[in-house]
Amino acid sequence: MAENGILQLRSLREQVYEYLRDAINRGELHAGSFLDQKNLSESLGISKTPLRDALIQLETEGFVSILPRRGVMVNRLTLEDVRHLYEIIGALEGAAVMSVGDQLDETHFKQMRSLNAEMVGAVEASDFNRYYARNLFFHEVFLGLSQNGSLLRMVENAKHRLYDFPRRRAFVPEWELASTGEHAAFLELLEGGEVRRAADYLRDVHWSFEVQERFILRYYFSEAVSVEAGEA
User: What is the pTM for the complete model shown?
Assistant: First the structure.
């Protein structure tokens, strides 16, 4: 982002925002730690104003908390956070399907079938990065038809919060395969012209916290689950 204290031409706030999100993703800023704003300002060669603006945006999106007289803390992702994010994504993606369902055709269906097959292959090869990328592309087929920019930004931010900051390297094959099965069921409803049922299925099964909870616990909180099991 910065070279010799000189920033690129994009707004300082945008650059600082991206720098901090990337630092969280790389694990350089750990959940529960406090940011040293003075050192950050000096190392980036910027004033406190763009840093403060970037931190306010990160707080709005749930990545940090600005605590009076204490500073800025990198947030942990809690089980309740995951529950709320699933509710948000399910509702928004379901709404997107309802709004674009009549635009989906065989070209889209073929693309989604192909991506889902690639996801199955990625699971069999234990290639999480390929699985993850194809999973995003699968959902992008219908999300990309939406003209609702606000909805798309909210979905993107929620998925970043779930998956990317920091990026988890855990791999739960049973969950990934179950997800491809849900994709197939969702796609079958769309191909049959049952757009509302497809939207409901996406919200009430694929993005249901209750349906996915056993996998969520293994993916996000495996250490806590192991400790509890050991204490039982």
Answer: 0.82
